[in-house]
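User: Quick sanity check before I run a bigger batch. Here is a single chain. Can you write out its predicted 3D structure?
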Amino acid sequence: MSIAVVTDSTTDIPSDLVEEAGLNIVPAFVRFGDEEFRDKVDIATEDFYSRLARDKDVFPTTSQPSPGDFKAVYDELLKEHDEIVSIHISSALSGTYASAVGGGAQADPSGERIKHVDSRTASMATGFIALAAQEIIADGGNAEDAAAAANEMVPRVQFAGTPDTLEYLKRGGRLKGAQALVAGVLKIRPVLAIVDGEVEVIAKPRSHRRALAALISRVVEDHAPLTNLAVLHTDQSSRDEAEDVLTDLQSSVKPGGRSLRATIGPAIGSHLGNGTIGLAVSW
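Assistant: Done. Predicted structure follows.
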């Protein structure tokens, strides 16, 4: 039996891992004004962050793939595969999961060949779930096994980060305006996490150093030893720091576990901005 795993570009899985695992990525959309780009297809991640830094008065917006986009992918995959497991960003943050379900209903009216999973998280936390599902399949599991394992993993992943500002999240409607206003007035470097599928401020330190310490404490130390760890960054200015953090946290990962550095792509980066450091973990 042949089974495909589908996810979306908000997972931020590095391209080499996508290719190695044989994952199928459906891109989200990013807009600058009237210009629309497919995430990581029509606009490279480095180009996106350069433009974000250059055009400070233009805030990017995002939109999910349509049901038709998913149907097109599913139709092609079902020509060569018996089943599909489709794993996506939290339905409380994006309409992507709903689009996937809608596209699946069109491509598979019986509802028997496509299994959908709402990760209730984002970025590489969703990515780790997708990679785990692919591993189940590689070990001989069927789509039901992979979807069950993915759903069981949902409560054991976390994505969190510390952006320079909450303005992007506020403008994108992912955070209440009052929270962003308070953070700006008090010059807070917020620590954000996805909790029960939604973005919450989990710490409010007043310096980058303290924010990073709080991020590590709440995400890594509270859940170590870890099965998977990704240290993420947005623009290149935060890449070296991400590498240093990854080196420092290697001891928190179980023997045989996965640890990596990854770049937050344009779809997620549109809501965080330059200068963000993030952590995605599973335990």
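The longest strand covers residues 253-263.

User: Great, the batch can go ahead then.
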